């Protein structure tokens, strides 16, 4: 018996879950009734409620559509999710349609991650958040079978996790001050920019705290000379880096800015999946990896490895997500130079108890196998 089979057999012998609860598509919770030895996928839509309006340079919203996913195998359940902010181009309907096309019962071995991802990509192109939901659930399932969290499976050191930033969106001065007060437990603030009042926003924050900030312009700066002036101005105000300062199509202008900026320039909207990492290397100092864009943990890990090999910085980001998606991303956090994993902190209706933030730092639990998220109900 090989090592993988031994670990799987040992874990299955140790774990017993009688009549585990799952969700049927668009329906109420249902119970699995004993299809052993194959992967069983189920899902349901869910709407994330934001504590505050989420204001960016080009949009504003108070909710985020989401789809909750489960994969069951021999009585063990893995949890995943797809979060779809509008700019991703996915929706509850598109994610549900993609997931409905999948026949996961053809797989009798959840450890064949590469083969399963090849299948997901063969069903339809794009659909990155939909694929990420399956990937996260699969990783959660495998980790539970092995009885280990994924940071251990990858051989990562939990003491190397970074601080996570807390996001301050574009808003009225009084709301910004309130958000800064809410963010007192955090050691880094992420500031959304891209409008005419960028400097005013930073000055408001600096009137209340001197903690480091990082800036996300969300493609909002349109002139490279003004972008460079902002980078110099921010460097004098304890800023760590600038994320996606200009439109993702402005590659030459971004490369020009990178050569002159006193702050690192990080790719976000420019970057989707693994092939984009090499493209980013000439114009950006680092990349922001998000599971909803990378199709999940499997490819996100490869992206982090490649970025480091190219001498680039690695940031881990997120969408508005429950603690399911955030806890999954946190398993990769020892590989990151920076983290922005606060999506679960921005919602009022989380479904999971997941990764904790202790003194502003990501705290991974050795006692929670898989992605480390436990359903609240």
What does this structure look like?
The structure is a single chain. This protein is an alpha/beta fold. It is built from 13 helices and 17 strands. Helix 1 crosses helix 4 (about 130-145), helix 2 (about 90-100) packs across helix 4 and helix 8 (about 225-235) runs parallel beside helix 9. The longest helix is centred in the middle third of the chain and has 19 residues, at about 130-145. The radius of gyration is 21 Å and the shape is globular. The two termini are about 40 Å apart.
- What fraction of residues sit in β-strands? 15-25%
How many helices does DSSP assign?
13
**Amount of helix:** 25-40%
Termini gap: 38 Å
- Side by side, the strands of the main sheet go 6-7-8-9-10-11-12-13
Rg from Cα: 21 Å
Let me know the number of strands. Answer: 17
Largest sheet: 8 strands, parallel
Basic shape: globular
Note poorly predicted spans. Answer: 1-35
Query: Which series of helices and strands comes N to C?
Result: HEEEEEHHHHEHEHEHEHEHEHHEHEEEEE
The computed structural class is: alpha/beta
Mean pLDDT: 89
Quaternary status: single chain
Please supply descriptive tags for the structure shown above.
single chain, 377 residues, alpha/beta, 8-stranded parallel β-sheet, 3-stranded antiparallel β-sheet, 17 strands
Short synopsis of the structure:
The chain contains 13 helices and 17 strands.
Helix and strand topology:
Elements: H1 3-14, E1 21-23, E2 29-31, E3 40-55, E4 60-73, E5 76-83, H2 92-101, H3 113-123, H4 128-146, H5 150-153, E6 165-168, H6 173-182, E7 188-192, H7 198-206, E8 213-216, H8 224-235, E9 239-243, H9 251-260, E10 265-267, H10 275-280, E11 286-289, H11 291-294, H12 297-309, E12 313-316, H13 323-330, E13 338-339, E14 352-353, E15 356-358, E16 361-363, E17 374-375
């Amino acid at each position: 018996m090989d090592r993988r089979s031994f670990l799987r057999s040992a874990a299955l012998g140790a774990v017993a879950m009688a009549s585990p609860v799952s969700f049927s598509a668009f329906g109420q919770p249902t119970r699995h009734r004993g299809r052993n030895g194959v992967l069983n996928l189920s899902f349901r839509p869910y709407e994330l409620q934001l504590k505050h309006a989420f204001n960016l340079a080009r949009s504003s919203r108070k909710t985020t559509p989401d789809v909750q996913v489960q994969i069951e195998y021999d009585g063990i359940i893995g949890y995943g999710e797809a979060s779809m902010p509008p700019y991703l181009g996915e929706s509850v309907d598109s994610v549900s349609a993609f997931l409905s096309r999948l026949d996961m019962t053809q797989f009798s071995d959840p450890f064949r991650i590469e083969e399963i991802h090849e299948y997901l990509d063969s069903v339809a192109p794009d659909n990155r958040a939909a694929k990420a939901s399956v990937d996260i659930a699969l990783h959660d399932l495998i980790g539970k079978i092995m009885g280990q969290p994924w940071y251990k499976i990858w051989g990562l050191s939990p003491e190397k996790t970074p601080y996570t930033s807390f996001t301050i969106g574009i808003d009225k001065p009084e709301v910004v001050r309130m958000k800064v007060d809410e963010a007192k437990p955090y050691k880094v603030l992420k500031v959304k920019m891209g409008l005419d009042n960028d400097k005013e926003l930073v000055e408001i924050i600096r009137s209340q705290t001197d903690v480091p900030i990082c800036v996300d312009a969300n493609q909002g700066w349109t002139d490279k000379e003004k972008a460079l002036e902002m980078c110099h101005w921010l460097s004098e105000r304890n800023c760590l880096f600038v994320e996606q300062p200009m439109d993702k199509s402005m590659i030459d202008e971004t490369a020009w800015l990178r050569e002159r900026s006193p702050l690192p320039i990080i790719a976000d909207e420019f970057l989707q999946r693994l092939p984009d990492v090499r493209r980013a290397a000439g114009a950006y100092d680092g990349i922001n990896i998000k599971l909803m864009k990378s199709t999940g943990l499997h490819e996100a890990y490869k992206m982090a490895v490649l970025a480091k090999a190219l001498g680039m910085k690695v940031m881990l980001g997120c969408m508005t997500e429950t603690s399911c998606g955030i806890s999954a991303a946190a398993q990769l956090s020892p590989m990151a130079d920076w983290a922005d994993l606060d999506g679960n902190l921005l919602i009022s209706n989380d479904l999971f108890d997941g990764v904790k933030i202790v003194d502003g730092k990501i705290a991974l639990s050795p006692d929670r196998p898989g992605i480390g998220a436990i359903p609240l109900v």
